[in-house]
Input
Amino acid sequence: MQEPRILQVRTQILKKNDELARSMREQFLQAGVFVSNWVSSPGSGKTTLLLETLTHLRNIGQRVAAIVGDLETDNDAQRLAQSGAPVRQIMTHGCCHLEANMVEEQLHNWSLSDFDYLFVENVGNLVCPTSWDLGESLRVALLSVTEGEDKPLKYPGLFNTSDVAVLTKIDLSGPCDFDRDRALENIQRVRPGMPVFELSAKSGEGLDRWFQFLIHQRSATMG
Amino acid sequence: MHELSIALKLVDLACEHASSCQEMQVDAVHIAVGALSHIHEPSLLSGFAIAREGTLVSEAELIIRQVPLVLACTDCERDFESSGIQDLRCPVCHGYSTQVRHGNELDLEFLSLRPRQDENISIGSVSNPARI
Ligand SMILES: [Zn+2]
Output
């Protein structure tokens, strides 16, 4: 037997996705559209908060749009369309995450400079979306109090690949026996220094701070 | 799971490189997987077994090098190997000023090749036609 030969490669496996995402990010920045990628488990209240966010930003004169990833249905897209914002749907047919090229396909015939904000609602999943850059400037990890304070330790990847955490449904903290201090500490353990927003789309508590944060992030990103 | 998608990308990338020396057979595909890359190894191995079918790396074994999590604390000005991915604070000062030095890797490192024994072996297509 001959000795095996080594062919050095040293390349990221997701290089093509990462390169596409990088060029999309540049395109977004040039067009002045601030893109965020929202990641959470199903049932975290992501669609509800996104609907509130789209509606509020539209009411204050911002131009917003959304792209929704969903396994099989267009329920979320239909709900978001109630805001009056243009919404596009990616049906992933079982694929548990969005990839950059799936988002890129949705951009056709949209003039990006017509938007100030583009929201990408990822497929509801705590693990799979973490590896895939979609060209966003902000990745948002959402956790509802009904999921329990240990979730950050069980799914550290969701948090340590995100830029900001949002604790949703805080109106249910009491009934759920949610240990807020533990939850905040767990988030800081898996993602030291992470900004956290606590809010309820139902009661409206904390929403203003959240909207302000997005507006501030957009201006900081666009320079 | 996302491991199948990653396995398909890996096979594409490995075939791209292997196609430059088709007189060789790919025995093994060596990758580095960081502790923070959120890969479930058994799923990646079974995903790879599916993804390699009918490609230039159909005979190849997947060999995974695990990369531990290494953090740098800017306050302590030192690097530390972290005890686990559930705690990214500095293990010494317990501060939040840490950065990930290693642990995010998800890299194709190298291929090991050997000359084909049987000259009659036909050379497979570069990429797998069955894509999801
Ligand atoms: Zn330290």
Chain A touches chain B through 37 residues (CB under 8 Å). The two ends of chain A are 61 Å apart (CA to CA).
